[in-house]
Design a protein that fits this description.
It is a single chain. The longest helix is centred in the N-terminal third of the chain and has 43 residues. Strands 11, 12, 13, 14, 15, 16, 17, 18 and 19 form a nine-stranded antiparallel β-sheet that branches. Strands 3, 4, 5, 7, 8, 9 and 10 form a seven-stranded antiparallel β-sheet that branches. A three-stranded antiparallel β-sheet has the order 1-2-6, with no helix packed on it. The protein contains three helices and 19 strands. It has three domains: 45 residues; 100 residues, Immunoglobulin-like, CATH 2.60.40; 105 residues, Sandwich (Immunoglobulin-like), CATH 2.60.40. The two termini are 29 Å apart.
């Protein structure tokens, strides 16, 4: 081996070592900044609390003890074993100001009129803070951040590809899953637009409708004395693979019934690899400019 070749190899090893040290230093700095940011944001979110004020479960109270507004606030009861949403506050509250306590009326998330909660449940309030971060705050004290951006947008885009149509004879509803993912615990609900009550529902719950498949639901009125009202909301209610429960309306509207899921954090190894690649790219750019 020539001396020049040896010097080149030694120089290359030194460059790699310097890049690895730079990546390690940068990683530590990023971790310190992220921890400080996380502590600040979590400290803010911990000042929001939820409690059940009446039993059997009918009313929940959300208290914003912070010094800024919280937005898009909803309260949910999750089954302790399945994590399925069994009770919901329905429409999200647009805003709760600092120092304000707000009551939420709770109602069954599905078609059941009475929900059995003796098996145990988690009570959680989900909200967005003043900086745009979304949180799950549990009655027992747990706090978890909810992912934003592409993950939630993709879940909503998939849910929009679920459609329903009315079949006249005999009266039934066809639910078509045109998304690329299975949907679960599918119910059909027909609600009176004037009174808001449940006028009719699907005779059965479909446990799963696979991607690209459909299912037909026969309709049974719940008010046999007065029959079906003329003006109704026709709704397909289902849970996606992320655990979000949706209401898909005949006219195209889409509402999230359950809370958005908490995220899966990136692994430490993946963070280091991405940091090293970023530093390597920066160093190569400097060499080209030189």
């Amino acid at each position: 081996m020539q001396v020049g070749d040896l010097a080149t190899w030694v120089g290359a090893l030194g460059t790699v070592g310097a890049l690895m040290f730079t990546a390690y230093t940068l990683r530590r700095q990023i971790d310190r900044e992220r921890r400080a940011d996380d502590e600040h944001r979590r400290g803010y979110a911990k000042r929001v609390r939820v409690s059940i004020s009446k039993e059997p479960v009918k009313i929940a109270e959300v208290t914003n003890s912070g010094d800024a507004n919280i937005y898009r606030v909803g309260v949910y009861l999750l089954h302790r074993q399945t994590r399925e949403v069994i009770v919901s506050s329905g429409k999200l509250e647009d805003i709760i100001g600092p120092g304000v306590r707000r009551e939420f009326s709770l109602m069954p998330a599905g078609k059941e009129q009475h929900v059995e909660t003796s098996a145990g449940y988690y009570c959680v309030v989900q909200f967005t803070d003043d900086n745009g971060y979304r949180w799950n705050r549990y009655m027992m004290g747990l706090l978890e951040e909810v992912p934003q951006g592409n993950e939630v947008a993709q879940a909503r885009a998939d849910a929009l590809r679920v459609s329903l149509s009315i079949v006249e004879e005999p009266l039934s509803v066809e639910v078509v899953n045109n998304s690329g993912r299975d949907i679960y615990q599918v119910d059909v609900l027909i609600k009176d637009k004037t009174g808001g009550g449940l006028a009719a529902m699907g005779a059965t719950t479909e446990e799963v409708i696979s991607a690209g498949r459909s299912s037909l639901f026969s309709i049974e009125p719940t008010r046999r004395d007065s029959g079906m009202p003329v003006d109704c909301f026709w709704i397909a209610q289902f849970t996606d693979t992320d655990g979000i429960r949706w209401n898909r309306y005949l006219r195209g509207r889409l509402d999230a019934v359950g809370p958005e899921p908490s995220g899966i954090r990136q692994t430490r190894r993946g963070k280091i690899v991405r940091t090293f690649r970023r530093v390597l790219h920066m160093s190569q750019s400097d060499l080209h400019r030189a």
